[in-house]
Amino acid sequence: MPGLGVRVVKVGGSLFTLSDLGPRLQRWLNQQTPAHDVLLAGGGRWADAIREADARFGLGQQTAHALCVETLRVSARVLAALLPGSPLVIRLPQLRTLLGAESRGSWVFCPYHFLTRWEPRHHPRPLPATWEVTSDSISARLADVLGAGELVLLKSCAPPVEPSAGGYVDQHFAIAAANLARVRQVNFRSAW
Predict the structure, then answer these.
(1) Are 155 and 14 in contact (CB under 8 A)?
(2) Does residue 165 belong to any structural domain of this protein?
(3) Is residue 58 part of a domain?
(4) Residue 89 lies in a domain
(5) Residue 37 sits in a domain of what CATH number?
(6) What pLDDT score was predicted for residue 161?
(7) Which DSSP category does 145 fall into?
(8) Rounded to two decimals, what is the model's pTM?
(9) What was the pLDDT predicted at 190?
(10) Residue 88: which of 107, 69, 112 has the closest Cα?
(11) What is the DSSP string of 23-77?
């Protein structure tokens, strides 16, 4: 399938409470239009623990952000274990090579090296190391860097009826997703 597009799929961390997350996610992927799927896992309860530690101990936004980025290593490995057909990829150059293949594939991308080494050096406006940035903006930045045709946010709730309502995505998301061709939100908890 020459010219197969790229779809970045952010799997919300709250979805890790679903006992059937792996099979449910595989069914969903199989029903999507053909594309290379790059999955990025949210931090979920692991990131929530860092939020609590920051509130309790005053870690500071930069330290808390760095610790949350560390949790994404754990959630990526868990997601890859739940999706045996979607191997874990930890480096952007390796991912780009895989995306150049003609046959459809799906991979779980661990964004740790991307966020700590590649993105601060190669992007003119690196993501802020604050609570304004979560895996929503990280997935948007990855989709932008990969030239993805679509970013899908799999969440535990439906998007708000009023687009200006806050809280559904992080505060930096509008900036991170500004260049994306298509963003789709899916209430994965109830729809699948």
Answers:
(1) yes
(2) yes
(3) yes
(4) yes
(5) 3.40.1160.10
(6) 73
(7) H
(8) 0.94
(9) 86
(10) 107
(11) HHHHHHHHTSPS-EEEEEE--HHHHHHHHHHHHHH---HHHHHHHHHHHHHHHHH
DSSP letter assigned to residue 165: -
- Domain with 165 in it: 6-191
Q: Give the CA angle between residues 141, 144, 149 to the nearest 5°.
A: 130
Is position 1 within any domain?
Answer: no
CB atoms within 10 A of CB 113: 14
Distance CA 25, CA 30 (A): 9
For 107-156, what is each residue's pLDDT tens digit?
999 999 999 999 999 989 999 999 999 999 999 999 999 999 999 999 99
Cα–Cα distance measured from residue 102 to residue 81, given in angstroms and rounded to the nearest whole number:
25
* Residues 12 and 153 sit within 8 Å (Cβ to Cβ): yes
Please tell me the total count of domains within the chain. Answer: 1
